[in-house]
Amino acid sequence: MIQIENLSFGYSRKSLLFRNLNLRLQEGHIYGLLGKNGAGKSTLLKNMVGLVSPMEGSCRVNGLEASKRFPAMLEDLYFIPEEIYTPSLTARQFVANTAPFYPLFDEEAFYRYLSEFDVPQQEVFSKMSFGQQKKAIIAFGLATNTSVLIMDEPTNGLDIPSKVQFRRIIASALTEHRCIIISTHQVRDLDSLIDTLVVVHDREIVLNESLDTISERLSFTTIPETEAQNALYTEDALRGKNAILPNLMGNYSKVDMELLFNAITSGNTSVTEILKRPHYEQSF
Amino acid sequence: MEFKENEPIYLQIAAHVCDQILLGKWAAEDKIPSVRDLAVSFQVNPNTVMRTYEQLQNQEVIYNKRGIGFFVTPDAVQKVKAQRKERFLQQDLPAFFRNIFLLEIDLDDIQQRYEAFKTQNYESEIEQKP
Known about the structure:
The complex is a heterodimer. Chain A is α/β, with parallel strands linked by helices. In chain A, about 30% of the residues lie in helices and about 25% in strands. Chain A is built from 10 helices and 13 strands. In chain A, the strands form 3 sheets. Chain A has a 6-stranded mixed sheet with strand order 6-7-8-3-9-10, with helices on both faces. Chain A has a 4-stranded antiparallel sheet with strand order 2-1-4-5, with helices on one face. In chain A, helix 4 (about 105-115) packs antiparallel against helix 5 (about 130-145). The two termini of chain A are about 35 Å apart. In chain B, helix 1 (about 10-20) crosses helix 3 and helix 2 crosses helix 3 (about 45-60). Chain B is elongated. Chain B has 2 domains: about 10-75, Arc Repressor Mutant, subunit A, CATH 1.10.10; about 75-130, no CATH class. Chain B has 5 helices and 2 strands. Chain B is mainly alpha-helical.
């Protein structure tokens, strides 16, 4: 789906945001892209959709170089930036103007998503609140049925019921031919949807791993202060410490994405080393 | 639905499906919700539900009619009960035995209490049994 090879990029030659970056994203998955402020999440997404061009290396979407912006690539990709622009058009007018660029656009699905999101169909987009505008564009992006759907902080500005609707709609929109990439700081909004975590840190992709593998190898738990020396990473909590430990017993614990993210971006290498070990076939 | 944190979500969804079958809400040869519909109602990744259905297929609780959907197998209730019984005997019973042993509880006493419990809670169902 998306193949990034040896990509280097920066807004100026002196300070590169990425150096020799490699990343492969596949269809049938929902990727969660995490990174600190300024780590380059949005810039990475812009490279993927051809809004900026790499200084070196390549970024291909379905085999086509993103920065060349071939129509064949653009009609099969939809990008929802964090700050959206909406014209003063109603839903129907927006469809008339924009949908022809997307051959697989499903108009009926678009209106269905709008009503699920409680977005009025007669009103002009630009007159709506930020949250309503965002939901309208998310509904449109999902209805385009492009094989690649990229969203930058989609849950920002969404109210509480809309977040539930968002999760329902994304769950219904993933097919085995689709690749959904969501960059977010609000991991709790999405933690049962994301199946693979990608973390950008220090100009590199420091993690690209399925949550299944992560929970197979690491345990996330709260331990008493006295047991902290066995942990790979700990954070103070109300009772004892929230900790990441190697999963030696094969027990399941839910991946605490925030804790894992903090561990990785604090420069703790023991966690990533365990995750980077080659995959072994399960022998039992 | 709120998920427990100490068990994989796909297993919790499997338990939910098995509950529906034991409760008789989904009967033998009934079509069950599609992967997508169940993913939407639980707000989870469809791959998670796919994993649930794959496991239930291996356990012969459900089967796949290609292109039509997933259906409850004729002997799903027995399969689910057999699995749960196995799990109870493997996991819960040893803990129960340990307590009986440590607290020196007489097995006859347990037997009496069990009979009383049955009549108190399941009287109507016992009468129905031949």
